Structures are given as C-alpha cells and as structure tokens.
C-alpha cells in the first residue's frame, strides 16, 4: 500500500472540503509514515478510515455526503474539470471535460496528411510535429473551454501504449503543466480511454464486453470497473487498422482524388460501398482455434498477392489503380469484418458459459478508430441482435484518437480517486510505456 505523504494529504484536504476537514481528526503514525483519518459525526466516531490510495473512495464518499448536506445552506458546488492530453500516435489532442461528461472545449491537430505523403508514420517526424503543436493545442482547448489552468482540478495525459517518441511529448508536457500549476496528474492508458469513452455519452454500468479495434490494437476485453479489465482475446500479429492502412497503401488509394486525404480504413470503406464483397475470396484466420485470438497478417498478405496478380492481369504500372478496385476493397473489408464478428461471437459464447456478464443486461462496446466503419458496425449489430446483446459505440468522431477521451478517462479516475498522482516526486517519476 502506498504511504501517504503530506503533499497527498494536503490535496485530500482540498478534496474533502474545509468543513469536512474540521470534522476529521488526523493522526500521523510516524513509524509507518501513514495517516489515519477518523470521520466524526455528531461527536461520535462513525468509522475509522485509513487513508491510502486504496481507500480514497471512502473519503470521497464521505466528502460527497457532507457536501450535499451543505447544498441547502451554501449554494451549489463548483463543477469538477479535467484537462486531457493525447499524443500517442499521430494526433495532438487536448480537451476539458466536466464530471457530467460535458465537453467544454477541445482542439485536435492531425498529422495524417503529412504521414500519408511519407507512406506511413515516421516516429521522429511525428514527435517533431507533436512538439511544434502541443502548446497551441492545449491553449486552444483551454481557451475554447473558457477556463484557465488554475480552474482545472487535474491534468490527464496518455502515457501508454503508443509510439514512444510521440507519447513522450504529451506525457512530459502534461506533467510539466501539472507541476507548474500544482495540480494532480493522472496517467492514462490509451486503450482504456477508447473503451470508456462510451460512458461519457451513454448511461452504461459495468461489467460489459468491449471490442477495441484501432491502428495498433485488436482486443476483446471484459470491463469490470474503470481499472479492472480481463483480456479475453488479442491479435497475434497486425491490428485491423494496420491491415487496412497497409492494404490501402499498396492499393495506392492516395492517388484516387476523393481518397487522397482519408486514412486507409476510411478510403477502403468509401470504395467498398460500390463493390462486391464476394468478388474475391480471402482465407479465414484462426479457424482451427477455439479461442478469441485475432490475426490480420494472413489477410494482409493475401491482399498483397491478389494485387500483384491483378496488376499483371490488367497490365497496371506505376501509380495507376487496378480496375476492380471497388470489388477488392469490398472483399477485403468483408474478410476483416467476418474475422472480427466470428471472434466476438466466440467471446460471447465464452462469457455465456462462464456466466461472466449479467444475462439480463448484455452489452458490447465497440471502440477505437476502426469502429468508425459503418459496415463493421452493422455486422456487429446483426451479431448482437441474435445473441441478445446491446451494441454501444461512441460517435465516430470520438472513436478515432482525440483529447476528449483522455480527459474523460481522467475524469472517471478523478471521480473514483484512483490512479491520481499528487506527489511532486511521484509525478516526476511517471514514465511512458510503449506497450
Ligand atoms: O484509434 P485510432 O485513431 O489510432 C490508434 O490508436 O491506432 O485508429 C486509427 C485507425 C487507422 O488504422 C485507420 O485506418 C482506422 O483507424 N480507421 C478506419 C476508419 N476510420 C479510421 N478503419 C475502418 N473504417 C473507417 N471508417
Ligand atoms: Zn487510438
């Protein structure tokens, strides 16, 4: 259990409120460097609470009870605000949200066009662009929110997983402004943020099943609480977004004017709308296995082989596009979708056998950049209709990387007082993690 230092205690006082503070006896156990808060009500001890990271929740509860009692006499309580910063890949994002999930303001600078020109993300280029834009993006988010840094309760930033050079920019910037403004810092797991975004827009209680599909991940997860997750399936090689992006690059979709500024997944979805999904056959990944593991590298290689064959057949050279492009995109998208649906169905069967989710309230949350895809959404919707699940997806804008989801994840942690760092030395010591 983490020991409580004076800095943390001072922050807890702020959280408890002055009136509550006066009602609390604080004893310092010199020996263990721990503090004990004994809540008093009507001059009687109700229950002793040992203040530690693990028991902050109790303290917050006490504070809420006592403050709501104060509403009648002292007017409404100030709203809580978290500033979120995202730089895990190629988007520099920042936002301020309140405890109800209202977005006060946001700013996003996407590097997509530049990386499309390079034929993929070059990490040092991404870092340079994050570094050049971070201050403007954060200031813009604050300005649009109409609040100053002083009015923010905590600063949250993505610290993992992602490209190390990109992560470092947002993490260091977030830590620095938190330290300068004497605010708590909340390190955020990027995938956790994707998974919890839906709770900002929908009333959804734990537990639920989550399918996270992005440019770097493919995960089937059981969400038990904001910081307890069980992974029940993940990719052994590529992520679906990666398979779509690399496929789109090889198909030279950037040379099609209407697709020139789209991500690979977006461009494939766009062209697939007028294609035949059964025109070309792709292998079924992992069909021999009974688990929920994903694999997209085989599909990607089959696509690359098909393109080479069709280029020879149609004598296509240089930057030109193969004539059956729409059918190829539709068939590839269908194969990726089928794999996602099959493995998700296996996860549902697994949950059913093990009784991991309440039968009367089965929910599947779909999130991550690939969740923008309407074809994939409607295929999963059909699966949910037959399995009795309710499908929940954040709006497409919130599925791709953004600062809002980081601010919201920070707010969820702030409200639960879990994973919030108050101590200056502890904040300084927080480091990024690529995985
Ligand atoms: O979550 P995200 O913004 O970044 C990562 O955390 O990776 O996801 C980006 C991925 C890219 O691979 C992109 O091609 C894919 O999401 N994507 C799509 C669509 N829009 C973005 N994939 C399929 N259909 C889309 N409409
Ligand atoms: Zn992402």
Textual characterization of the structure:
The protein is built from 16 helices and 13 strands. The chain is an alpha/beta fold. Helix 7 packs across helix 15 (403-416) and helix 10 crosses helix 12 (325-354). It starts with 5 loop residues before the first helix and ends in a 6-residue tail after the last helix. Bound molecules: 5'-O-[(R)-(carboxyoxy)(hydroxy)phosphoryl]adenosine and zinc ion. Residues 89, 214-216, 241, 244-245, 263-266, 269, 368-370, 372-373, 400-401 line the site of 5'-O-[(R)-(carboxyoxy)(hydroxy)phosphoryl]adenosine.
Features of the shown structure:
binds 5'-O-[(R)-(carboxyoxy)(hydroxy)phosphoryl]adenosine; alpha/beta; single chain; 13 strands; 435 residues; disordered N terminus; 16 helices; binds zinc ion; five-stranded mixed sheet
SSE arrangement:
Layout: H1 6-16, H2 18-22, E1 24-29, E2 34-41, E3 44-51, H3 56-74, E4 81-86, E5 91-98, E6 103-110, H4 112-118, H5 123-145, E7 154-160, H6 164-180, E8 185-189, H7 190-196, H8 198-201, E9 208-213, E10 218-225, E11 228-234, H9 240-250, H10 264-272, H11 297-313, H12 325-354, E12 363-367, H13 374-387, E13 390-392, H14 396-399, H15 403-416, H16 424-429
Parallel strand pairs: 4-7, 7-8, 9-12, 12-13
Antiparallel strand pairs: 1-2, 2-3, 4-5, 5-6, 9-10, 10-11
Number of strands: 13
Tell me the series of helices and strands, N- to C-terminal. Answer: HHEEEHEEEHHEHEHHEEEHHHHEHEHHH
Helical proportion, percent range: 40-55%
Low-confidence blocks of residues: 1-75
> Nearest-angstrom radius of gyration?
24 Å
**Count of DSSP-assigned helices:** 16
């Amino acid at each position: 259990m983490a020991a409580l230092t004076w800095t943390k205690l001072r922050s807890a006082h702020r959280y408890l409120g002055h009136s509550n503070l006066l009602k609390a006896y604080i004893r310092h156990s010199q020996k263990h460097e721990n503090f004990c808060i004994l809540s008093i009500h009507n001059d009687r001890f109700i229950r002793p609470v040992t203040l530690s990271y693990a028991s902050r929740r109790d303290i917050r509860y006490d504070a809420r009870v006592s403050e709501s009692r104060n509403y009648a006499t002292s007017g409404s309580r100030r709203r809580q605000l978290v500033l979120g910063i995202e730089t895990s890949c190629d988007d520099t994002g920042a936002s301020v949200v309140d405890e109800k999930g209202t977005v006060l303001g946001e700013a996003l600078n996407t590097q997509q066009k530049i990386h499309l020109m390079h034929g993929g993300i070059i990490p040092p280029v991404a870092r340079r662009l994050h570094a050049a834009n971070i201050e403007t993006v954060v200031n813009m988010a604050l300005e649009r929110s109409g609040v100053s840094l002083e009015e923010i309760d905590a600063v949250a930033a993505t610290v993992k997983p992602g490209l190390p050079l990109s992560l470092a920019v947002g993490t260091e910037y977030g830590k620095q402004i938190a330290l300068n403004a004497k605010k708590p810092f909340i390190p955020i797991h990027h995938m956790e943020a994707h998974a919890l975004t839906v709770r900002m827009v929908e009333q959804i209680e734990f537990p639920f099943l989550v399918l996270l599909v992005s440019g770097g991940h493919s995960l089937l997860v059981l969400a038990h609480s904001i910081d307890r997750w069980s992974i029940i399936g993940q990719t052994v090689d590529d992520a679906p977004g990666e398979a779509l992006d690399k496929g789109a690059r090889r198909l030279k979709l950037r040379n099609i004017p209407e697709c020139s500024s789209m991500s690979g997944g977006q461009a494939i979805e766009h062209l697939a709308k007028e294609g035949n999904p059964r025109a070309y056959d792709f292998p079924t990944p992992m069909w021999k296995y009974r688990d929920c593991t994903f694999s997209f590298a085989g599909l990607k290689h089959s696509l690359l082989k098909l393109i080479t064959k069709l280029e020879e057949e149609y004598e296509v050279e240089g930057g030109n596009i193969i004539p059956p492009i729409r059918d190829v995109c539709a068939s590839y998208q269908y194969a990726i979708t089928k794999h996602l649906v099959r493995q998700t169905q296996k996860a549902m069967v697994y949950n059913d056998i093990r009784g991991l989710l309440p039968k009367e309230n089965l929910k599947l949350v779909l999130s991550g950049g690939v969740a923008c895809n309407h074809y994939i959404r409607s295929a999963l919707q059909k699966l949910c209709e037959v399995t009795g699940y309710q499908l929940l997806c954040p709006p497409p804008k919130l599925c791709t990387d953004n600062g809002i989801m980081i601010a919201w994840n920070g707010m969820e942690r702030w409200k639960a007082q879990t994973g919030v760092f108050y101590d200056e030395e502890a904040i300084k010591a927080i480091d990024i993690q690529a995985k």
